[in-house]
Fold this sequence. Notes:
192 residues, alpha/beta, Rossmann fold, 8 helices
Amino acid sequence: MKIGLFFGTFNPIHVGHLTIANHIAEHSDLDQVWFVVTPMSPFKKNQSILDDNQRLEMVYRATKDYTKLQPCDIEFGMPQPNYTINTLTYLKEKYPDHKFSLLMGEDNLNTFHKWKNYELILEHYSLYVYPRITKSAAKSKYNDNHKVNFVDAPIMEISSTFIRKEIKAGRNIRPMLPEQVWLYLDQMHFYK
C-alpha cells in the first residue's frame, strides 16, 4: 500500500488540509494519506497549541468519513524533539509492506535542504509537493528529480493561526472547518 504522510500540528485541522490531502489521494498513485499529528514540543511552550490528543481527536473527526484519509499518532510515543527521518525509519520498520511518501507545501520545499538527513529522505522516499502562493526557487532545483512530484492541487491559503485568531476575536470561521471539528471546538471552548 502506498501511503502519503501529511505532517502537521493540525491546531486545528481545517478544510484546506482536507482539500489538499483528498485531492492528492484522488489524483495520484497513493492509496491513502495519513495525517501525522506532530506532538507539542516541550521546548515550545505555546498556550495556543492544544493537547496532542485533542488535536488527534479533531483529525479523527475530520477524516472519519473519508476512506483514503486517516489520522496517525505514530510520533506521540517517539522521543522528542523528533525528526522526520526518525519517523520514516520507524514507520518503515513497523509497516514493511507499505511504501511511504511525504506531502509538503512548496514553501517547505524551499527549506527542505535544512532538514536533518534530507538527502536520505530524498534517496528513499518520494515527495508530493502541492502549490502555495510563494516565490519558489526550490521548484527549479528539484524539477528534474524523479522523487519530487509537483501536484496540481488547489491552492489553499487558510492557516490554523488565522483560524485561532478569528475564534479568539469572536468571529465566525465555521465555513473554514469540517463540521465535526467546528462542533468539537465550540463545545470545548477552544481558542477563545
